[in-house]
Specification:
The complex is a heterodimer.
Chain A lengths: L4 H9 L9 E2 L6 H10 L5 H4 L1 H5 L13 H5 L21 E11 L10 E12 L7 E11 L5 E12 L2 H7 L2
Antiparallel strand pairs in A: 1-3, 2-5, 3-4, 4-5
Chain B lengths: L16 E8 L2 H11 L9 H6 L9 H16 L4 E9 L8 E13 L5 E11 L3 E11 L5
Antiparallel strand pairs in B: 1-3, 2-5, 3-4, 4-5
Classes of the chains: A alpha+beta, B alpha+beta.
Chain lengths: ~170, ~150
C-alpha cells in the first residue's frame, strides 16, 4: 500500500539540518556560459562580456553575473544531474516548482575562479496549493565559496513538489 | 567599448523609478532560456508535460527570472556599484505570448552601519495577462561622490 503524504513527510523531516560535504565544481568559471546566459536576457553588460573592457575596471577581469554564481558552483546538467549535489528529500509528488529564492553576494566571482558549494536542508513541510492539497515545501540553502575558501554567495531556495491531478485522484486527495 | 555612465548615491532619491526593460516571451526566448540556464526540466519547454501537471502552458524558469533581475539591478548600479542581495517570489507564470516587463523603484536610501551607501529596491516582472508575476526586493551599494 502506498504511503500517505504524512508518512513521507515524517521521513523527510528527519533530514532537516543535514548538510552535504563541500564539493568543488567540475569546471572553473568560464566565458562562454556567461555569454549564453547574457544572451538569454539580452544583458549587454561589458563587465560580463568584454575582457578588454573588464580589464580596465576595478575587477581587472570579466566577472560572473550575480545570478550565475550558483551555475558555476554546481555540477551542470550533464553528464551529472543538476540535483546530484543537493539533498534528496522524499516527497509525495515529483513535479517541482521554485517559489522563492533569496541570495546574498559577498565577493566578485571572476573568470578562472574555481567555486565549491555545500547544501543544507533547512525545512520541509506540507502546505496546500491550487494544484495539490498536500504539496511539499522544501527549503534548501546553498553556501558557495571560491578557491581561497572565501564565501562568495549564500542562497536560500524554497521550492515545492506537487502531485499530478491523476496522482491526487488516485490517492483520494 | 566606452566606459559606461555611473550613477552615484547622491544622484537618486526614494520613490524614483530605476530604468527597466521589456522582454517578449517568444518561442525563441524559450530556446534561449534552456540554452542560457541549462535547465532541462520539461515543464519549461514541453507543453504536453506542463499540461499533464495541471499547468495551462510552459512557463519560464527560475534561472531566467534570476538573470532578468540580475540584469536590471547590475545595469542600474554600474561598474562601481554592487548587488548585495535579492529575494524573489514567483507568484504567477510568464509564458509564451507574454510581453514581460521588468521594472523597479527605490524604496529606501540610507547609509548602513559600516558607512556604505545603500538602496533598497522593489523590483518586479509584469505581463499584459496577469500584471505582476514575480516580485523581488533587493539591496544595492552605490558609490558616493563624498
Amino acid at each position: 500500500m502506498a504511503r500517505t503524504p504524512e508518512e513521507i513527510l515524517e521521513e523527510a523531516r528527519k533530514l532537516v539540518g543535514t548538510e552535504t560535504p563541500l564539493r568543488r565544481a567540475p569546471y572553473p568559471v568560464e566565458y562562454d556560459p556567461i555569454r549564453r546566459t547574457c544572451h538569454m536576457v539580452s544583458d549587454r553588460n561589458p563587465l560580463f562580456l568584454d575582457p578588454e573592457y573588464a580589464k580596465k575596471t576595478k575587477y581587472g577581469a570579466v566577472i560572473s553575473p550575480p545570478a550565475m554564481v550558483n551555475y558555476f558552483s554546481g555540477r551542470g546538467a550533464w553528464p551529472h544531474s543538476m540535483m546530484e549535489s543537493m539533498i534528496s528529500v522524499p516527497t509525495a509528488g515529483d513535479r517541482a516548482i521554485n517559489l522563492t529564492v533569496e541570495t546574498e553576494w559577498f565577493k566578485p566571482v571572476k573568470v578562472g575562479d574555481w567555486l565549491s558549494e555545500k547544501h543544507r536542508l533547512a525545512d520541509v513541510y506540507i502546505k496546500a496549493i491550487r494544484l495539490d492539497p498536500k504539496a511539499f515545501w522544501v527549503v534548501q540553502e546553498r553556501i558557495i565559496s571560491n578557491q581561497d575558501g572565501e564565501v562568495v554567495c549564500i542562497e536560500r531556495n524554497t521550492s515545492l513538489r506537487h502531485r499530478t491531478p491523476e496522482q491526487i485522484a488516485e490517492a483520494g486527495g | 567599448m566606452a566606459v559606461r555612465e555611473q550613477v552615484y548615491w547622491e544622484d537618486v532619491k526614494e520613490g524614483e523609478e530605476i530604468p527597466g526593460f521589456v522582454l517578449p516571451i517568444t518561442e525563441t526566448q524559450i530556446a534561449l532560456q534552456v540554452s542560457g540556464s541549462q535547465d532541462f526540466y520539461p515543464v519549461h519547454h514541453d507543453r504536453a508535460f506542463a499540461r499533464s501537471g495541471g499547468h495551462p502552458d510552459i512557463f519560464v524558469n527560475t534561472g531566467f527570472m534570476r538573470a532578468c533581475f540580475s540584469r536590471l539591478m547590475t545595469d542600474f548600479v554600474g561598474d562601481e556599484g554592487w548587488l548585495d542581495r535579492f529575494s524573489m517570489q514567483m507568484r504567477r507564470m510568464n509564458r509564451p505570448g507574454d510581453e514581460m516587463a521588468l521594472k523597479g523603484v527605490i524604496k529606501r536610501k540610507y547609509i548602513d552601519e559600516k558607512g556604505k551607501h545603500k538602496l533598497d529596491l522593489d523590483v518586479w516582472a509584469e505581463n499584459q495577462r496577469e500584471g505582476q508575476t514575480t516580485v523581488c526586493e533587493g539591496t544595492v551599494t552605490l558609490p558616493s561622490r563624498s
